[in-house]
Design a protein that fits this description.
nine-stranded mixed beta sheet; alpha+beta; 8 helices; Pseudouridine synthase; five-stranded mixed beta sheet
């Protein structure tokens, strides 16, 4: 059971819960994911199974895209709807002009620095930040540089919605960003630009790297596939999962050497840069290993071996 699944994560489950569920459905112990989604969030979660779990390092840094609803009017201690309100709702929060909203959005595009939220899985001194937060402790966090490629009003619902009874109002946005970006923090910073508290009430990841919702499956659908014996229809091979990496083809003799961790001497000098990751495939297109290119020696050195020697 070696490959990649794109799961449409439901709300109310942690990413760890999803992994545990997939583990039970597949009957496969080696299952992992490449990027956490908050429990209230939904959408694309890349899940790796079997020997494909060794590919996590090549997929975890992929850019992400989201559809989010930001509630303007008050903040919460978690930055989302699951938290405790920490500011009072402000009246008439839908009084901004489109130009003011666009200026606030534009100020957050490009390279910015974010301070990771206390309620997050980021580790400080070996402990996850939310562990400190649940004990009521605030710890110093260093800003992290991230890139916001897109931050814009989303489609027809991009206009500010009518006010809620408490004076708050919702705005729908689309976000495309680098790995490690916290949309909750982005929402809070957006609110600050408008002089109002803000938090996220809905968050849906629509894309992670090359994988989007169109190729995603629910946990219920996954279970049905396994029962019907049609898992191969949705299981992405290891080679396809890292298809963005350049590749070299191996002869049967080179496959055996690669499985033993021995470097591959290239006959012609490829257009690889020093230390580029390279797919090492057998003649049928199966991924044998991912290697690092040594430009000076003109070698590809296997670093992550997936195919075992027979």
């Amino acid at each position: 059971m070696d490959g990649v699944l794109i799961i449409d994560k439901p709300a109310g489950m942690t990413s760890h819960d999803v992994v545990a569920r997939v583990r039970r459905i597949l009957g496969e112990r080696r299952v992992g994911h490449t990027g956490t989604l908050d429990p209230f969030a939904t959408g694309v979660l890349i899940v790796l199974a079997g020997r494909a779990t060794r590919l996590a390092q090549f997929l975890s840094g992929a850019s992400k895209e989201y559809e989010a609803i930001i509630r303007l009017g008050f903040s919460t201690d978690t930055g989302d709807l699951t938290g405790r309100r920490i500011t009072q709702a402000q009246e008439k929060t839908n009084s901004w002009s489109e130009a003011e909203i666009e200026a606030a959005l534009a100020s957050l595009r490009g390279e910015i620095e974010q301070v990771p939220p206390m309620y997050s899985a980021k580790k400080i001194e070996g402990k996850k930040l939310y562990e400190f937060a649940r004990r009521g402790e605030e710890v110093e966090r260093k800003p992290v540089r991230v890139t916001i490629h897109t931050l814009e009003l989303s489609g027809d619902v991009g206009k500010i919605s009518p006010q809620h009874p408490d004076g708050s109002t919702d705005i729908h946005v689309r976000v495309a960003c680098s790995a490690g970006t916290y949309v909750r923090t982005l929402a809070e910073d957006f609110g600050q630009r408008l002089g109002v508290g803000a938090h996220v009430v809905e968050l849906r990841r629509t894309k992670a790297g090359d994988f989007d919702l169109q190729g995603a499956t629910t946990l219920e659908q996954l279970e049905e596939r396994v029962q019907q014996g049609s898992l191969d229809d949705i299981l992405i091979t290891a080679d396809v999962a890292v298809g963005f990496l350049p590749c070299v083809s191996l002869t049967s003799q080179e496959v055996r050497r690669t499985q033993q961790g021995l470097p591959l001497k290239l006959e012609s000098k490829p257009a690889f840069a020093e230390a580029d990751w390279v797919r090492m495939r057998d003649e049928s297109g199966t991924l044998v290993a991912v290697g690092a290119y040594d430009r000076e020696a003109e070698l590809v050195r296997p670093r992550v071996v997936l195919s075992l020697e027979q």
